[in-house]
Amino acid sequence: MNPASRTGLSQRPQWTALADHRVALGEVSLRQLFADDPDRGERYTLRVGDLHIDYSKQLVTDETLTLLRELAEATDVAGWRDAMYRGERVNTTENRAVLHTALRAPRGAVVEDGGPGGPNVVPEVHQVLDRMADFADQVRSGAWTGATGRPLRNIVNIGIGGSDLGPAMAYEVLRAFSDRDLTVRFVSNVDGADLHESVRDLDPAETLFIVASKTFTTIETVTNATSARRWLLDGLGAGPEAVARHFVALSTNAEKVTEFGIDPANMFAFWDWVGGRYSYDSAIGLSLMIAIGPERFREMLDGFHLVDEHFRTAPPEENVPLLLGLLGIWYGNFHDAQSHVVLPYSHYLSRFAAYLQQLDMESNGKRVQRDGEPVAWQTGPVVWGTPGTNGQHAYYQLLHQGTKLIPADFIGFARPVEELPDGLAAQHDLLMANFFAQTQALAFGKTAEEVRAEGVPEELVPHRTFPGNRPTTTILADELTPSVLGQLVALYEHKVFVQGAVWGIDSFDQWGVELGKVLAKEVEPLLTAKDGERSSDSLDSSTAALVARYRALRGR
Ligand code: F6P
């Protein structure tokens, strides 16, 4: 790793070369680029595993790509990547290794925490996976019973952030692979409505709570888990001994798990070298494993591993996460793009963008470099998106004709999931026709001449003209399987890594979430105290007035 890579990014010759190149390119015309190079649509494609990546509709030339790769080289992306895979403590502000890649390493692989000579973490990973598989099989078969002797058919995961978004997203994605006799729900919000709506129609005698929290100190999760325990024991009319049959924990913190009242024998561990937002392929995925079964879960891990190996070994010209990361830098740093939209043309991926929001924004939403110096360049984008075709009837207007440049990833599949009845599977062609049409319209638009040629009255011509040159990447796979999901997630994980390495930031801490948590602890007693017991004098006048209004509305 080259420490010099951490300073003065925007002064680097590779950076200024890109800035100059951007000016020289001017307004890129994708129509022109395609006309100049009839093979562009073929040439600008890559393959990783089952994923076919078409980046021909990006505002780039061969020179752009070369310059971007030179920037990656100058900032030692490969050095940082190798250090991560070697188990070195690349999460510098927390002095931790970053080893989510070990979670999907095959049995027998060696990955050393802290770098060469450190303890090999792979055997432990597989021990936990084996225990999870054993437990999942017991729940799925009905061999694991609740306190009344009935099998547990309702699985409720309680967690937030990385302890919720990953398994919740993946469960949605892989519903068609799940045991349809199980009811699987995810509770995250400390708003009591979330737990209420998730359990109100469930029978406690058949309900398993999975309390997922890396730290086991997260107030939302501990509060919801405490309420869930009350709901269970009240519903069963049972004593605390019933908890052991209905509660398991997923955590790194055995002490807190025990303190909460969950038997450590019912705890599935993971480790501080797994970041929360990189954790759903650890024990945090237990709810998913119960839903889809250990075999399918293993297939998903293999999909992750395939892309891990690609990222580690593929040359820069063929390295897909590197390419996607650099394209993001091209737009964020050289076109002033503020956001990035992810548009899956699969209803099963409805929560994918929400998952990516934490992955990307918690990782790269940073304003200082590793050495604490403020960055003088843009870092992570706002990430958003919903499945097509719904978005088309909501915000695509802005994508096509608005004033903002919003690079988009289109994710689609050649085949609908097998489970769909024939009549519904037949709709897939229409879905995918929209998928292809949208990238076409965004790239090539419709000129004023073309609009006029249709006989549109002159005063409407500007309104009906599409400028085009809106960049997209198309990610196409045969079918949405557990392995393909693993491949997709690993792709985005490593894309985020590439960008963090170029920007010189620590993508693996999340200090920005702390202040709000601390203040909430201070504010809560001010909301609940009896009149006169607590003073809001220390608050700013806005917050003090809001607290007073809230108290008045609550009759306090
Ligand atoms: O507040 C942010 C965060 O720390 C995330 O990084 C994490 O995924 C989430 O909270 C939940 O944390 P835990 O798993 O420790 O409950």
UniProtKB/TrEMBL annotation:
Q: Return the similarity comment.
A: Belongs to the GPI family.
> Could you tell me the keywords of this UniProt record?
Cytoplasm, Gluconeogenesis, Glycolysis, Isomerase
Among Pfam families, the record links this protein to: PGI
Protein name (record): Glucose-6-phosphate isomerase
Task: Report the GO terms under cellular component.
Answer: cytosol
The record lists the catalysed reaction(s) as: alpha-D-glucose 6-phosphate = beta-D-fructose 6-phosphate
Alphabetized GO MF terms: carbohydrate derivative binding; glucose-6-phosphate isomerase activity; monosaccharide binding
The record's section on InterPro entries has: G6P_Isomerase, G6P_Isomerase_C, Phosphoglucose_isomerase_CS, SIS_dom_sf, SIS_PGI_1, SIS_PGI_2
EC code? 5.3.1.9
SUPFAM superfamilies assigned to the protein according to its UniProt record, in alphabetical order: SIS domain
Q: Where in the cell is it found?
A: Cytoplasm
Catalytic-site annotation from UniProt: E362, H393, K517
Keyword check for S-adenosyl-L-methionine: no
Q: What taxonomic lineage is listed for the species of origin?
A: Bacteria, Bacillati, Actinomycetota, Actinomycetes, Kitasatosporales
Q: What does this protein do?
A: Catalyzes the reversible isomerization of glucose-6-phosphate to fructose-6-phosphate.
Answer whether the UniProt record assigns the keyword Cytoplasm to this protein. yes
Biological process (GO) annotations? gluconeogenesis; glucose 6-phosphate metabolic process; glycolytic process
